[in-house]
Write a structure and sequence with these properties.
mainly alpha
């Protein structure tokens, strides 16, 4: 096998690709080494064991799909515009295709569970805060955040499970949301200046 130099991040990204393709069971040293075109020895240079690889890979997903997404919209002053930018990024940018539904499908895995719970809690808290900034009463903002997040997860699952049946869920190649995404964005974002109250 020719010598190929791979980095720790190469291993992490390959692990996330394997997770998206075949689930947690696919995150194994030998098949990922083959995917990268390297020997198993490269793995042990960076990681103690397979659990460490999976854990760090999930942390990379958390960083790029939650922390970075939130940071990217932070400069947008208007909360409604920030929500729209967040939705647009979440629905059209996919650092690891099909990964999110695969992670959710393995929510009970002892390595996946704490990361998924942390990500879910942070995303819901951030959405709740944004809806509160848009003028919704706190309890209503929380409910709206949960509904929006459920719609997001469903959109991702539909994109993965039935792309040929629901091509509207596919991200646009030019970065511009398609008609279905634009419709969803309009439905999820509150009217400018809207305020609601509820029990």
């Amino acid at each position: 096998m020719p010598h190929v130099k791979v980095t720790r991040e190469d291993w992490l990204r390959a692990a996330l690709d394997a997770l998206a393709d075949t689930g947690v069971g696919g995150v194994a040293v030998e098949p990922i080494a083959k995917r990268l075109g390297v020997t198993r020895g490269s793995f042990y240079w960076y990681f103690k064991d397979r659990a460490a690889l999976l854990s760090e890979a999930l942390e990379l997903w958390e960083q790029q799909s939650t922390v970075q997404f939130i940071a990217d919209v932070a400069p947008v002053a208007d909360p409604r515009e920030r929500l729209e930018a967040l939705f647009r990024n979440a629905l059209t940018r996919e650092p690891f295709a099909g990964l999110e539904p695969a992670i959710v499908a393995h929510a009970g895995d002892p390595i996946v569970k704490p990361v998924l719970e942390r990500v879910t809690e942070r995303r819901l808290r951030y959405l709740t805060d944004l809806y509160s900034e848009c003028g919704l009463e706190s309890a209503v903002a929380r409910r709206q955040a949960v509904v929006v997040y459920a719609a997001y997860l469903g959109w991702k699952e539909l994109r993965r499970a039935a792309p040929g049946i629901a091509p509207e869920t596919a991200p646009s190649g030019d970065g511009v949301p398609g008609a279905a995404i634009a419709h969803l964005l309009a439905a999820l974002a509150p009217e400018r200046g809207a305020a609601e109250s509820g029990p």
